[in-house]
């Protein structure tokens, strides 16, 4: 069976193509190249490809530029998919599967690539779906390719869902919690085990549909955990408990754990919002109802606006107010804005007449593309908060957590800090004249600046 593969000189490395050079595709390609495989990364975005050919990463991801540089001898970047697919041993599809208007997953890009593979593959190969796709999609892709393929070669399809987190994507790939391999026959599993031979992670070979489900069920469980703790946080605020103490106490139970038990203004990003909606849609389509997931989605939708609602306690309206925004990405460690709370909250403040100043260490440039006018972009936190009537913390960047809180009092006109990510201890504000209002905890100095 292994004769189907062409090996490089040391007998183990493969010729790999990776369509889609986003957070998943590029990280996958670079990590595989770092292990010695010959990797061709393909994208339709010419600007991105030109950048990568110069050795630059088009996305912000810690450790990625360095690993890319180290592995350049094993990497090719191109828009020419034919040259990449025609003699590849393995093709990892990492293109996007964004949300459609009805919440279902948009599979257009995945099928586009499948078509291109069918038209160009000239050698037996394994097509691996890394993109998150609804259960049964691998089956459809397989039938589609077999139907459309031009050359008489054997093309296998395997599912290999991705579990990396943006901000720690390189580490998560090189030290994966698990590598899930979904197959309907042995050969593609053997090939994938070989691809991942030098990755120190448990390898789990399962049915293809189970692999697809593992991905959604994992992401949706984490989203559920976040929405659950946000509801508990909201109740804590009402009844005078402190969510940070509550989660500290809960997390010691190993069955619960501390991770993803952090209350805030909800989850965002390119995965949890769309993956909860896609599974919910898919369940309905299959005459099932996922009531827990529906609740997680609903809770998150409300939680996103928590700080703007809190702001109404201090100001009747936002007309002519100077509002400082700290952080606009959906989480620290990334420049990604997809489904970030900033995208929906800042327009509300602006429409109500506020002047906005934004600080973010890496997300600002992307944010500027969405909001080129009317917002003042600042290079440091001090500039953003100087003279402000209100400060909203939307992302828990290290710079915010380490910021000397006395400066809020010194620099802001009305030092009201609304913290959507619980960056500070309440005791830090005890001897200040700062109103500090966070999530699931009592407000420190609640009445100092309330408009009469
Ligand atoms: P992304 O939007 O960052 O990147 C997708 C890339 O695919 C883009 O560069 C786009 O130009 C390219 N593309 C589109 N059509 C193409 C084609 N025909 N040929 C070649 N390239 C093409 O996406 P992402 O965030 O990396 O996510 C990719 C998939 O992985 C999604 O299904 C997502 O749900 C899943 N996933 C994402 C993460 C994450 O943290 N971002 C984690 C796990 C799984």
Task: Describe the secondary structure blueprint for this structure.
Elements: E1 15-19, H1 23-34, E2 38-42, H2 46-53, H3 64-70, E3 75-78, H4 81-85, E4 90-93, H5 108-120, E5 125-129, H6 137-148, E6 155-159, H7 169-174, E7 179-183, H8 186-195, E8 203-207, H9 208-239, H10 243-251, H11 272-285, H12 291-303, H13 306-311, E9 322-326, H14 341-351, E10 355-359, H15 364-370, E11 375-378, H16 381-385, E12 390-393, H17 398-401, H18 406-411, E13 416-419, E14 435-437
Parallel strand pairs: 1-2, 1-4, 2-3, 4-5, 5-6, 7-8, 9-10, 9-12, 10-11, 12-13, 13-14
Helix pairs in contact: 1-3, 5-6, 9-11, 9-12, 11-12
The structure holds nicotinamide-adenine-dinucleotide (NAD).
Nicotinamide-adenine-dinucleotide is lined by residues 19-25, 42-45, 48, 94-97, 109, 112-113, 131-132, 162, 164, 166, 270-271.
- Strand order of the main beta sheet, please? 3-2-1-4-5-6
Shape: elongated
Unreliable spans are: none
Mean pLDDT: 95
- Cofactors, ions, other ligands: nicotinamide-adenine-dinucleotide
- Helix content class: 25-40%
State the total count of DSSP E strands. 14
Q: Tally the helices: what do you get?
A: 18
Distance between the termini: 79 Å
How many strands, which pairing sense, and closed or not: the largest β-sheet?
Answer: 6 strands, parallel
